Each structure stands twice: as C-alpha cells, then as structure tokens.
Amino acid sequence: MTTFYHAFTKFLDDLGSVGWQNLGIAIGFNLLRLAFRCPAWRNILRAAYPKKRVPLVGVSGAYLAGVGINSILPARAGDALKLFLVKRQIVDSHYPTLGATLIPETLLDSVVAAIIVGWALAANALPGLGVLPSLDTVDWSWPYRHQTVTAIVIAVIIVGGVVTLLLTQERIEAFWSRVRQGFAILTQPRRYFLGVATWQLLSWACRLAAVYFFLEAFHMPANLHNAFVVLSVQSISTLLPITPGGVGTIQGLLVATFRNTIPTATVLSFSVGMHVATVVANLVVGFTAIGLMLRTFRWKRVVQPEKPLAEH
Question: Which of 151, 181, 211 is the last residue of a domain?
Fold first, then answer.
C-alpha cells in the first residue's frame, strides 16, 4: 500500500489547487451512475419473482448500501449486505435466487469492461498485464513459492466439493432450482435489453463522464482517450477485489500507464483524489440508505431476527 500512502500525501499537498466545480460535476455523474443501476437490478428481481412486489425504493436502498460497504471493505463484502437488505423487501424470497440475480446484473459490465480493456491493450495504452505481479499492492508470488501446499489446498477443496455434492444431492437440486430462478431475465431478451441493458449503458456513460471531469478537476489532460484508459485500469482492478475499491492497485497501474507522458506526482494526485471523492460520496449515500432502511446501525438487533431464515 506504499503507493497509495504516497499518493494520499501528494493529494493533500495539492488540495488547494483542485478544480472544485469540475469535482462537483464528477461526483454528480458518479451518483447518477449509481441511480441508473437501481432500476436495472429491480427489473432482474421482478423477472425472478413475477408474482411478488419488488419495491423500487427498497431495492435502491439495498443496492446503495452495498455500494457504500464495498467502498471500504474488500472482496465485495457489500454484496452480502445488499442481499440481506433486499431479502427483507421481497416476501418469501431466497438467498440463492437473490444471489444469482447479481450475475445478470453484472453481465453487461463484464462485456463492456472486456471491450474497453481489449481496446486499451490493442492501442498500447496500457503497460501490459505483465506489470500486475510487480505492483506492491498484492503478493502474487506466494502460490508459486509454495506449490506443494497450494496443490494440497486445491485437492482438498475439490474432494470436499465432490463429497458435499454426493451427500446433499436433493438439497443441491433444490438449490440450483432457485439459482436458475435468478437468471429468469436472460430468457427474455427484449425485457433484458429494455429493462436492464439500457439502464446499465446509461450508467457507463455517466461513469465515463465522471472520469472526464475528475481528470479536469485534478489537472490531468482531459480527453476521451485518457478517460477510457482510466476506465480500463479500473476494470482490471475489479478482477481482483483484494482491496476496497481497488485502492493501491489502481494507483500503481495508473502511474505505470502514464509514466512517459504525465508527471507521476500529477497522476498520483488525480488517482487518490478521484478515489477519495468517490468513496466519500458512496459512503454518504450508502450509510444514509442503511440508516433509513434499518433505522439503526446496531447490527445485532437486525441480524438476530433473520437467523431462522437461514433454513430456507
């Protein structure tokens, strides 16, 4: 995390020169991006539960709460909170189905991100994926230095999985039936395009606009090329959500990407400034959503009544 701490120090030094108007516009586009994601997920849930009431406000609150938690915790921990909250909004819903809806919800994102990263690599706009192991944010070498232990762990996981399948076949069949229910929207192409893909494409447009104005705010060369390069770096960082929001990984990749064209100090100030502004905005809307939905931040009071539902 050395890169991020260095970047944060540089960001504080340059705080007085930030273009606050452009920063405000960037944050506005980021919030609008999140707003467009909510009806898309709701339409996926409505397809999975066509006979149940799926409130837009409740789904939006759950989605925004998850975004807030994902901003500060690694491994997409906010998704668990998102499912917990939305389950309270849909009567007699089940976690396997709700969890499965997250795949159609991110399907288009994967395609768009792959296209952007593919363009960046083809255009030599990135230093190459081979730079990832050299970043000081993630230790990629451990599995290679302990190959025997790694092989044993993988074997145990495989054997354990096979044994579990054999012992719980009936429950597994019921489980997969509920999982398939979460993919219902994909069997209705027109509904998926109009109710999901359209909203998500608007979200991507807002994300691009947000990056452009972040570039302006932190005095980086603001153009579509650089905005798409930043999006490609963000997309790569989501492949391994080991740190919250890809912090550290994004800073390292951006420095490597622009090292020959833009001063490192400017890149660091931009990258950490964009990260801090986005996290703060996500936290505000996320915890506001949590407070409104749960009316408390004392988790035990909320989680305890939910325990019996685990049997479903």
Answer: 181
